[in-house]
Amino acid sequence: MISNPQSCKAGESGFVLVAVLWIMAALATLASIYSAYALQTVDASHVLDDRLQAEASIRAGIELTALRRLSAPEAARPSQGGFTLRVGRTNVAIRFRSEASRIDLNAAPPDLLAGLFAAIGVDSDKARAFADRVVGWRTKSGAGESAKEASFYAESKAPYPPRQAPFDNSLELSLLSGLPMRVVERALPFVTVFSGQSGVDVASADPTVLSALPGMTPEIMSAVLRARAKAPVDQSALLSLLGPARSRAITDSSKAVRTSIEVAFDKGRLVHAEVVFRLDESADEPYDVLSWRDDFDGPITLAGDSSR
Questions:
Q1: DSSP strand E in the chain: where?
Q2: Tens of pLDDT, residues 221-265
Q3: Both ends of the chain: CA-CA distance in Å?
């Protein structure tokens, strides 16, 4: 039997057409995949570029703050202040304050710690007890005292004993036996582990911290706040106004400085950062970063001290 040549040619043409269509479909799929990959790569590069820009802007704010403080004689360095600058594609707003404006968990005496707890709404008996827990956590006690503090933690069914060493981080407050989390959250904006000062700087401390000073009264507080509103601040005059509240007050600003930085991108995005650094005039670098938190990748959590 003789096959029809025209029928064979038509079949071959149909097969070739189907093959071509399959190849075109495969190429279209590959092109779609490549396009998606390219777009994702571009998006990722934009995110990385924004991250680098944000870090550069934050770093510029830190360095300029350090420069402004170091350029003034130590006795005349401002306890707090603020300024703005332009860095690349961003406008940067900086506020800074001496870390001595906060109460140092490792250095503050019990009466100042109790005053802080009372200032944030804890009754006086519990405030003293919470202050004892802070001291018990940070202090390497003698054998009898050590056993007493450890026994307190055991009785409260805490899964750990007191640390009996300095706080590494303000968030360790949440580990203190018997201290409610709501009290920890209220206290965190007013405490630090970076100051190294047993008192607080009355020229820059928050009113809540000022009210923690033993002997503070509403009348003294009003007088201090009025005096602080005048520029320049007369630190000696501030101390003279304190009367019985003077014992835990200082006017020497700490070498540790806390900066609050807002980075505003030209396209509208805002990034916030809180950085604590310590001035070090004897080193090659004029400062050391002690803590760095920013919300580029998400909200900043509890206002404690955390190293980056």
A1: 80-87, 90-98, 103-104, 191-192, 200-201, 249-250, 256-265, 270-279, 287-294
A2: 999 999 999 878 888 889 999 999 999 999 877 899 999 999 999
A3: 86
| 98 is a domain residue | no
Q: How many domains does the chain have?
A: 1
| Cβ atoms of 131 and 117 closer than 8 Å | yes
Taking the C-alpha atoms of residue 131 and residue 128, their distance in angstroms, rounded to an integer, is 5
83-87, 202-206, 283-287: least confident range: 283-287
Q: Is the pLDDT of residue 45 over 70?
A: no
Question: Which are the contacts of 230, defined by CB distance < 8 A and separation ≥ 6?
Answer: none
pLDDT surpassing 50 at residue 60: yes
Residue with tokens 């706040």: 225
Question: Among candidates 294, 292, 235, which has minimal Cα distance to 270?
Answer: 294
Contact 263, 90 (CB under 8 A): yes
For tokens 């790569």, what's the residue? 41
Give the span between the Cα atoms of 308 and 292, in whole angstroms: 5
In a domain, 177, yes or no: yes
Band of residue 127 on the pLDDT scale cut at 50, 70, 90: very high
At residue 9, φ and ψ (nearest 5 deg) are -60, -40
Evaluate the omega torsion of the peptide bond into residue 189 and state whether it is cis, within 30 degrees of 0.
no
Tell me whether residue 112 is in a domain.
yes
- The widest CA-to-CA distance across the chain, in whole angstroms, is 124
The residue range of the domain holding 180 is 108-187
| pLDDT tens digits for range 272-294 | 999 999 998 777 788 999 999 99
